Amino acid sequence: MNAHDSEKVVGTLVGQGYSQVETPEDAELVLYNTCSIRDKAEQKVFNRLDRFKRENKGKTFAVLGCVAQQEGEKIFERAPHVSMVCGSASYNQLPQMLVQLEAGNKRVTGLSLDTEDTFETPYTRRDNPHRAYVTIIEGCDKKCAYCVVPFTRGPERSSTSDSVLREAADLARSGYSEIQLLGQNVNSYRDPSPTGWNFAQLLDGVGKVPGIRRVRFTTSHPRDFTKEIIDAIDRNPNLCNHVHLPVQSGSTEVLRGMQRSYSLEEYMLRIQWMKSAARPIAITSDIIVGFPGETEADFEATLALLDEVEYDALFSFKYSRRPNTPALALEDHISEEEKSRRLAILQEHQRAIQIRRNAQYVGVVAECMVEGFNKATGQWMGRTSQHKMVNFLRPSSDEDITGTYLEVRVTRSGPNSLVGEAVQ
Length: 424
Ligand code: 5AD
Ligand code: SF4
What we know:
Layout: H1 2-15, E1 29-34, H2 39-55, E2 60-65, H3 66-71, H4 74-78, E3 82-86, H5 94-102, E4 108-110, E5 131-135, E6 137-138, H6 149-152, E7 157-158, H7 161-173, E8 178-182, H8 199-206, E9 214-218, H9 227-235, E10 242-244, H10 252-257, H11 264-275, E11 282-289, H12 296-309, E12 313-318, H13 336-359, E13 365-374, E14 379-383, E15 389-393, E16 405-413, E17 418-422
Parallel strand pairs: 1-2, 2-3, 3-4, 5-8, 8-9, 10-11, 11-12, 15-17
Antiparallel strand pairs: 6-7, 13-14, 13-16, 14-15, 16-17
Bound molecules: 5'-deoxyadenosine and iron/sulfur cluster.
């Protein structure tokens, strides 16, 4: 979402007559988009801002994104060389804010979360010519106990189904064949127009846009994840057979503490729907270890969940205390050392699962969207519908096949990717 926010911000500035340069050194105005999901990401921001100051004297600096929203005007005190702070819910105010900045105002802010709008801009500048991000819902109403997002991105608000379909059709006309629908909780999507579509209906709609060959979506929340979504994937081959469904913990007790609003049994029901889909669906997830109150038995329940689901990939994190969040009231009793131990065990456990799972693809022929050429290895890189990376050889040819679709036979596998050969 942050990457796409940056694309939209660039588009907005270009629409205002600015031009983009390659490095901060070449810029007069440096906008720094930030993340505050974990403390480590936030610390990086202030280190980077100090470095910017030392290396780029005389430039105008702005801080965007979640750290801007969270720290607000305090950023001006901590980093006096910054002249503008703006959270993502205020990006549609950027044109007016830039006018103030250009007028020499040294304390420009956009920090209101009180918005019913999504950040739509006709100028979005996309970095990838084949795969386009499309935001369908912004903000989050879920309020998980550990999470800063509801405080930094504001309440949920959806784009109309009409504008999503129009954008998809425009993208197809401009040569994009893959669309990734984005939102903190895409499946909480609620069309605000009289059409009133839910997320599954939107998937059905986007899956039928001529020229769009692949549709992905992220992130889904288990609570609003319906069987209808799997039915839509079954009906539309253009909907990729991959679902990212963060579970966070394999213990219902910890899930309750996290205020995730589902039990392990309810989560597993959704996994069963996916496992009985018409096409094999790749399932990926997020896990937090060391949440307050997590016992050794809770942690082992998470390991058992990994064995049961056999995730295709996992993003795992040590719990990090965040400002404003309900979990701050809980004692963070698990030492950093113990969190690191659990994380290492979890990642090792998952690595063995991925080795086993990926080995099942050897001999399979899969359609890949070609993402580029790796000069170091002499291999092309592609992705299957299940989002598996395949590095493959192709009889020598100078033709650039990036963005095309090819059948690739998988010949070898590793924990994180597959190796194959293009089928003639
Ligand atoms: N500490 C650790 N991990 C977190 N995440 C969100 N908040 C925190 C936190 N305070 C993780 C969750 C989420 C992913 C995007 O980041 O797993 O799904
Ligand atoms: Fe954060 Fe929970 Fe919202 Fe995801 S659903 S953004 S984890 S509050």
